[in-house]
Amino acid sequence: MTDVLLNDVSRVYPDGTSAVSHLTLHVRPGELMVIVGPSGCGKSTVLRLIAGLEPLNGGTISIGGRVVNGVPTQERNVAMVFEAGALYPHLTASDNLRFALALRNMPKNEIEQRIGAESRVLRLGRFLDRKPRTLSAGQRQRVAVGRATVRVPAVFLLDEPLTHLEAAERIRLRTELSSLQHGLGVTAVYVTHDQAQAMAIGDRVAVMRAGRIEQVSEPMKLYRRPANVFVASFMGEPAMTLLAGRLEADASRTWVVLGNQRLPFPGIPSGLMRSRVGGPVTVGIRPEHVTDADAVPDTQAVLFSTAARVENLGSHLLISCPLDTKAVTVSDAPGVEKEHTRQAMLVARFPPTCRVRRGERVEVAVDMAELSFFDPVTGEALWNPV
Q: At 173, is the secondary structure helix, strand, or coil?
């Protein structure tokens, strides 16, 4: 198996735009690394640099220990699947799969064996004699994946391969992709803007922002222990609620103050949190850690609000609760307003049996052990759940 190392890599376009800036990333042998980030952050450029489709302006790229700066694409032993699939329209699905193998003068019987195995894994048997225009988007994308993997490259590169598929087809195909990649033992780099895809299939996930890596970790560590407010606001659906708060202490304990309400801090602030007592902090709360107070007997960590919006998702309700404090937003995170002074809206997850309606008073219990805290100036994490 082959690793991929990008060491201090930069890509600057002729007009001076920096797409990738001093980026370092190691993809381990056999790993499925997902690069996730908002549109324009440079994640697709990273793939094109690995493939040799764009030149480097700095740094080195190594594949299997071999520096490939300046090595032509066809000599890097990589295969790439693009967002649109890019099949040969005049060839059948079978001939699309066969094309790369035939170019390598592979024996005919081995070609047929590989196509047969690939079509079984990707469920393409019924479509092998059909041309791309007669296939659905999901079927075309499976053929594109098969064409890339049938020759078992050293590195498999996927650039937003599921973007245009229906939700159910996306879920099915992402599972197939992950199973196929791990079954082949091929190192893969997968680019997407969809954090749900990243969490679902990545062995590790790299979060990009403005040409740089913000954090690399296993999906659950990334979700539970974000390095900064950008990662916290990007990972999760709905995203973590970020609130302007303060830490205050009285004679008996420390409190997390949110506007005109306060919550008991769990234990005694330590580490970076110790010096923040008496000052402002950014408080991060995920929806699953806020629920109907009636469902949590004897809790002392309760906030009072009204239900501004109620979303019934079947398995649970999402209740949006305004609080008397300011929301903390990250301007380039997707789906957020760019105004930094808007009122905070805490999102809570209620059991589906609750009968709360819009405009009604609600009491929400907060799991204080699951809160995250960030520096209000730098955005860096001060404390995350264990």
A: helix
